[in-house]
Specification:
Blueprint lengths: L4 H4 L2 H5 L38 E8 L17 E6 L15 E4 H7 L7 H5 L17 H10 L13 E6 L1 H5 L6 H27 L5 E5 L14 H11 L8 E6 L9 E4 L4 E6 L7 E7 L7 E5 L5 E3 L6 E6 L5 E10 L5 E8 L15 E9 L5 E5 L16 E3 L38 E7 L21 E6 L7 E4 L6 E4 L2 H17 L10 H4 L43
Parallel strand pairs: 1-4, 1-5, 2-4, 5-6, 6-18, 18-19
Antiparallel strand pairs: 2-3, 7-16, 8-15, 8-17, 9-14, 9-16, 10-11, 10-15, 12-13, 13-14, 20-21
Helix pairs in contact: 5-9
Length: about 575
């Protein structure tokens, strides 16, 4: 995997990733080498040698690996391996430059009955002044991991689905534009593939001849980036998905479409068009927008106007970087021009405005308000505009404020008050194509979010593919139009949280896909999902029914039950 072009191109940045993790996570020369440990206890390995196991992998933040939903009825961990990127380093492995890897027996050793936080404190993930990622009640990773691979530790149902995980550092999540997260995710994918192959060898040696399939859930996304699947992460997912690993029965990726359909972050302009760009006040983070030309078309000429009406030319016509200054020659931003795919490829101009809340008297800043973008000239196909994500995630200290595009003709609601679906006609601000750039490749299954009631309706925020549909498949993530979200587990065994978004729809599809693979079904590419899932959403996208979960998700008035018929409201054994 180290020779793949998508990793080789970004080796300098990848090598600097240790700079963005807590100092205690760095593996120094004084850290002793790690010994070889089995991935799973014998009583946690797949119990049916005649059944093809499916490995479920989750890449997220703050994954509660010691949660009872990830254990067997004998009390052993179903996590075969998890890379805790922020954990205090206690051993040295050749393939991990920072953090700590825990395997199943290691997790069993750090868990303490009656003390659900003991395992996280033992890894340095819940210590004041060092790392507090697991000291909170809620986390995105807890919800996603539970939906993808959480099982009540009763019977053997969960043993057929060994787990792998990578818990990303806060630094990768706090910067929501994705400028840093992609490199951590690439490293995580290489780790997941390596551990899945080794785990498959361990499983095959002990419990049958079947090759386990690998299902990887990545419930993360970004708004900007190449829209044609040529981004480094999208290409890496496609590369891995096409490869045949001798130990694995296929690798499948499941990603959400994103939550930004109604956020006015995407537009299409023709030569001569103008559009507003609203830059919020008191924003301590930069605001960025990408202008993409069509393949083989000339470099577009762009002019921008400040909220006061001053017109500023963007001083760049060839590849490189430049500064944008106001009439007093004060820098207020910068611009970068890149050619993707050589002279026959696409041109991307990125305009980056300085924060509207400077950190000091000498810090560059830009004025807030309604800016104007004027596409002075462009090729006959026009240009696609897409704004970088710049918001604040719950539980993070970053204070980014999202900028948006403004068009007086844009209707935020339909005449009957509903949120619009796919685009009609050729508006400047687009809802079509609001799918995450991570999911632009040809291999991943792209999952949109829907409502439980009325069944089949698409959640209003759910991103759309370029052709206007909600994804390759839709799964319920909201109870109704008036009650968003679903109830999901939190970090503590007895805790629950209410979250919403396509991030919760994707792991349900990963769970369903793993079950099909474990049953021995041949699951073809994403284009055949229409024939495999009988239900249909309002736009004819396949609609996945809610699986039976080991807790009440709050999406239905009836009491959901798990596979054993036990009401999910009953406490878990360790509560």
């Amino acid at each position: 995997m180290s020779d793949r072009p998508t990793l080789r191109d970004f080796a300098p940045v990848r090598d600097n990733l240790p700079l963005f993790v807590p100092p205690a996570a760095l593996v120094g020369p004084d850290v002793p080498p790690a010994g070889e440990t089995a991935f799973l206890h014998a009583e946690a390995r797949p119990s049916d040698p005649e059944k093809a196991a499916a490995i479920i992998a989750v890449i997220d933040h703050a994954i509660p690996f010691a949660h009872p939903l990830f254990t067997t009825d004998s009390g052993h961990s179903r996590f075969a391996s998890i890379w805790l990127m922020e954990a205090a380093a206690t051993e040295r492995r050749a393939d991990i430059a920072f953090g700590r890897e825990l395997r199943g027996p290691d997790i069993d050793a750090v868990r303490v009955e009656g003390d659900p936080g003991a395992a996280y404190r033992a890894c340095g993930l819940a210590w004041p002044g060092r790392c507090m990622s697991m000291a909170h009640a809620d986390s995105h990773g807890a919800a996603v991991a539970a939906l993808a691979g959480g099982f009540r530790p009763i019977g053997d149902a969960g043993r057929q689905f060994p787990l792998l995980g990578v818990s990303l550092p806060r630094s990768a999540m706090a910067e929501t534009s994705g400028s840093l997260a992609g490199f951590f995710i690439q490293s995580a994918l290489v780790f997941i593939i390596a551990r899945a192959r080794a785990l498959a060898r361990e499983i095959s040696a002990g419990s049958g001849k079947h090759k386990p399939a690998l299902v990887v859930n990545l419930s993360l996304g970004v708004t900007a980036g190449p829209q044609d699947g040529s981004g480094p992460l999208a290409r890496l997912l496609d590369d891995i998905g096409k490869m045949a690993f001798p130990e694995l029965g296929g690798v499948h990726f499941v990603l959400p479409t994103g939550n930004h359909r109604q956020d006015c972050l995407r537009a299409h302009l023709k030569s001569g068009d103008r559009i507003g760009w609203n830059i919020p006040p008191a924003d301590p983070t930069p605001n960025a927008i990408e202008i993409w030309s069509a393949p083989s078309e000339p470099v577009p000429r762009l002019a921008i106007s400040t909220p006061s009406g001053a017109r500023l030319e963007v001083p760049l016509t060839t590849s490189g970087a430049g500064s944008i200054a106001d009439g007093n020659n004060r820098p207020i931003g910068r611009v970068v021009l890149q050619r993707r795919g050589g002279n026959g490829g696409r041109i991307c101009q990125t305009v980056i405005l300085h924060p509207t809340l400077p950190t000091g008297p000498d810090t560059p800043w830009s004025p807030p308000g309604l800016w104007c973008l004027h596409l002075v000239s462009a090729g006959k196909s026009g240009c696609d505009l897409v704004i970088h994500r710049d918001d604040r995630l719950p539980g993070f200290r970053t204070q980014g404020r999202q900028s948006r595009l403004v068009d007086p003709t844009y209707a935020r609601r339909t005449d009957d008050g509903r949120w619009p679906g796919e685009d009609e006609g050729s508006p400047m601000i687009r809802r079509n194509g609001t799918v995450s750039a991570y999911a632009r490749g040809t291999r991943p299954i792209r999952v949109g979010a829907g409502l439980a009631r009325p069944a089949g309706r698409i959640s209003p925020y759910s991103g759309l593919l370029p052709d206007g549909i909600a994804g390759d498949v839709v799964a319920p993530a909201d109870a109704s139009p008036s009650r968003t979200g679903m109830i999901v587990p939190s970090i503590t065994p007895a805790g629950r949280q209410r979250l919403s978004g396509t991030s919760l729809a994707a792991p349900q599809v990963a769970r369903w896909l793993a079950a099909r693979l474990s049953a021995g079904d041949a699951v073809p590419g994403r284009g055949a999902l229409r024939d495999m899932i009988k239900g249909r959403a309002e736009d004819d996208t396949p609609l996945l029914p809610l699986d039976r979960l080991p807790w009440r998700p709050g999406l239905s008035p009836r009491v959901e039950e798990d596979g054993s018929g036990t009401p999910p409201s009953a406490p878990l054994p360790s509560e």
